[in-house]
Amino acid sequence: MGESANIPAGGATILLVDTDPAILEGLGQFLTRDGFDVATATSTADALRLLAGQTVQVAITEIAADGVDGFELLRAVNADHADVVVIFMTSYGSIDSAVEAIRQGAHDYLTKPVVDDDVRLAVGRALAQQRLIAENRRLKAAAGPATPFDRIVGEDYRMVRVFELIDAVADSRATVLITGESGTGKSLVAGAIHDRSRRRDRPFIEVACGALPEMLLESELFGHVKGAFTGAVADRMGKFAAADGGTIFLDEISGASPALQMKLLRFLQERTFEPVGSNRTGSVDVRVILASNRDLWSEVEAGRFRRDLYYRVNVVNIDLPPLRDRAGDVPKLAEHFLGRFRRDNARAIAGFTDAAARAMRSYPWPGNIRELENAVERAVVLCRGGWIDAGDLPAAVSAGDTGPGGADAPNRTQATDAITLAEALAEPEKRIIASALAAHEGNRQATARALGINRTTLYKKMRKHGLLPPRPGTPRRRAAAPLGAARWREAENALDDGADQTIMDR
User: Fold this and answer.
1) Which one of 341, 371, 400, 489 is at 20 to 30 Å from 78 when CA atoms are compared?
2) Does residue 96 carry a pLDDT above 70?
3) pLDDT of 376-397, one tens digit each?
C-alpha cells in the first residue's frame, strides 16, 4: 500500500468487512495512514452490530465469502443506514456480480488485489456521494415537513389553478366535489385539502363507494346496530363517526344508491345520521369531499342522481385535467415516479433515454397518471442497463416513439389496437435479446444468465425472433461448421424436449 494521502479524510469512518485478516490489516493500515478512522468486521453479523453502534460514512465489503454476504449488508444499509455508501470488493472480478451490485445500490466495485490509486479514487467518490446525501438530509430537515403538494406533480397552468383552489378551500367547511377521469389523482387532491386544513391532525378516511354493495356501503358509512341485518352480530361504528373532527372522502359518489343519496343529503344539510337498524340520531363534525369520474349533471338528467344532492355537493368543484391535455407535465411526473421506484427496488438507473422520453411525450395516456406510474414501475423492474429505453416501456407506449416531435404517434398507437398482446410484446422482446447477445458477443450461456432464463428458453426465443445464425445448407455455413443439417434438426428437436443445448454451442 502507498503512503501518500490525496483525499481529505475529514474524520470519516470507513468500515471494512472481509474474512481475510491480512486484507483487513493491510487495507486498514493504508486507510489509517490516509487519515481515516477504520472499523473492521469479519462477518456480516459483526458489521451490522458495528453499524448499529457507531457512525460510518463508507463500508467496503467482500461480495461473498463464508460468513460474509455483501448483498445482505447492502440491503440492510439501504433499509436502515441510508447515509452509508457501500463499495463492493471481490476476488472474482465478475462483471455480472458488479452489475448486480450497482443495480442494487452499491456505489462502486473493486477487484482484488486492490490497487492504492483505485481505493483512493473509489473512497473519494464515495465520500463525495455521502456528503451529498447528508447535505440533502440536512436541507430537508431545515425546510420542515414536506408540503402536501409534494405528491402532486405539475406545472401546467391547469394544475396551477388546481393548487390555488386547494389552498383557497382547505380551511373552509365547504363541501368539495373533485371531478376528472379515472387515474387523474382525485384522492391525492382530497388528501392535500385535508393536509392543508386545520383538520390535518384528525382522521382522513377514504371510502370507495363503487366497491361495495348498497347495504354494506350504507353500513360502512353510517354504522349499524346488532341485529340490523343477517350477519350484524354486534354494533359497529361507521366511517362518518370514525372521521369525527376530520375529513371523509367519498370516491365514485355517482354510484351511490337512491337510499344512500337521501341519507347523504340529510347529513350534508343537518350534519346528523342514523346507523342502519337504529332510530337514534348521531351527530359528528366531518368535512366531506366527494369525487366522480362521471359527469354528475348528466347523471341528474338521466334520473340516476338527485338534483338537490347535486347542488349540495357541488359547492366547490375542482376539475382535474386528463394527462393528454397537459403533456408538458409527463417528463416531470415520469422522473418523480422513477425516483420512487428506483429507491423501492434498489436500482441504479440514471434516467430515461431520448427515445423513451419521446415515446412517453407522444403517447396519449388514456389511463392518465395511474397508467404512467405503472409504466414507469414496469420499466424500472425490466430495465437491464443504467438508462430506461423505449423498449423497457409497455408496447403501446414504445410504439409512440416516432422521433423528435412524435408527429405520427396517434396513428402508430392506434395501429396496436389491431394486433394481439403477444404480437405487441414480440418486438420489444426481440430488441432486448438482440441487445443482450451483442453485449455478450453472442455467448448464449452468458446471455441467458444476464436475462435470467435458461439456455433452452433463450434458444427457442432466438429461433422465434430470427436471431439464430444461418443454418448449414449455405456454402458459407457448410464450409464453416461440421454439424450437418440433419444433426441441426436433431439438436433442435432435443432442445424442444428440454435437452441440454451443448450440441448447439459446438
Assistant:
1) 371
2) no
3) 999 999 888 889 999 999 998 9
Which tops the pLDDT comparison, 128 or 480?
128
Give the chain's mean pLDDT.
79
pLDDT digits (tens, 9 = 90+) for 250-276: 998 988 888 889 989 999 988 888 888
Where do the structural domains in the chain lie, given as residue ranges? 13-143, 150-321, 329-418, 438-505
Mean pLDDT on 291-317 = 92
Please give the Cα distance from 366 to 388 (Å, whole number).
22
Place of cell 459446438: 506
Cβ atoms of residues 59 and 73 within 8 Å: yes
Q: Would you say domain 329-418 falls under CATH 1.10.10.10? A: no
* Same fold flag, 150-321 and 329-418: no
Q: What is the b/e burial string over 434-461, where b = at least 16 CB atoms within 10 angstroms of the residue's CB?
A: eebbeebeeebebbbbbbeeebbebbeb
Q: By C-alpha distance, which of 217, 218, 221, 191 is closest to 289?
A: 191
CATH number of 13-143: 3.40.190.10, 2.60.40.1730, 3.40.50.2300, 3.30.565.10? 3.40.50.2300
| The CATH number fitting domain 150-321, selected from 3.40.1440.60, 3.40.50.1980, 3.30.200.20, 3.40.50.300 | 3.40.50.300
**Residue 315 scores a pLDDT above 50:** yes
The total of other beta-carbon atoms located within 10 Å of residue 189's CB is: 26
Provide the CA 59 distance to its chain's centre, in angstroms.
Answer: 27
pLDDT band at 410 (very low <50, low <70, confident <90, very high): very low
Check residues 440 and 490 and name the one with the higher pLDDT: 440
The partner residues of 296 in beta bridges, in order of sequence, read none
SS3 state at 111 = strand
β-strands 204-208, 247-251 pairing:
parallel
Indicate the SS3 state at residue 87: strand
**Order of all β-strands in the sheet with 247-251:** 204-208, 247-251, 287-292, 176-179, 316-319
For 262-288, give the DSSP string.
HHHHHHHHHSEE--BT----EE---EE
Distance CA 254, CA 78 (A): 44
pLDDT of 94 reads: 61
